[in-house]
Amino acid sequence: MTMPNDHQSLPIRRDLSDAIDRAWVHLASPGTWWTGADRLCMVAETRNALDCPLCRKRKAALSPYTVQGTHDSLGELPDVVVDVIHRLRTDAGRLTESWLLTVLDAGLTDAEYVEIVGVVATATALDTFDHALGLPLRPLPQPQPGEPTRKRPANARVQIAWVPTVKPHDWLPGEHNPYSRYGGVHIQQALSLVPDTVAGFFDVDCELYLQQDQIRDFGTEYRAISHAQMELIAAKASHINGCFY
Fold first, then answer.
1. Which tens digit of pLDDT belongs to each residue from 206-219?
2. Which of 242, 194, 158 lies closest to 34 in space, CA to CA?
3. For the whole model, what pTM was predicted?
4. Distance CA 74, CA 110 (A)
């Protein structure tokens, strides 16, 4: 599958450019619970959420749960999926466990929800990177054929999050264990109900940031800016976005 790659004309590390291309292929491919076509509709809806009047009203409100209405959606996904995507993209810092329970009561499974989180997070990271470089949004690729695998880790339990997660020592033989490559601290465990989502997100995240074993290697600088500079940027972005983990 070929796609326009405006990054080729810019001085971007080859490993990062390659990871971005892989991320787009991953988004277009069948996941664990959603088809490639479903996932690309989610990417399109993630972009659309930024222009949603209801989301703007909720963002401006003291509590987003006091503002009722209908999302301005593209009409390709169920209403509950649209609401999840819009809230994740525009006001993730104010999600609550009680809201998630209403989402699950509406028919979405916990694993389907986790995969949506991964799609939205990956698409947001890719589009934000392009925006920072002054590039236009990359055209969406064609969806890849195939069916979701629908494989759930046997030892996933509710323990550190609102949804089930897998501890590093709880993977069974034969299961896809993404921790062996991307690390198994809480940020990876958060998506571990859907291991393919961990791999898909952190494959590009590690190139945008650092590999897990490089994060605390303060004696070596792996990027053009220092650890301290990266952490200052990360802390500021986390504060702006209401990111707590």
1. 999 988 888 888 99
2. 194
3. 0.92
4. 24
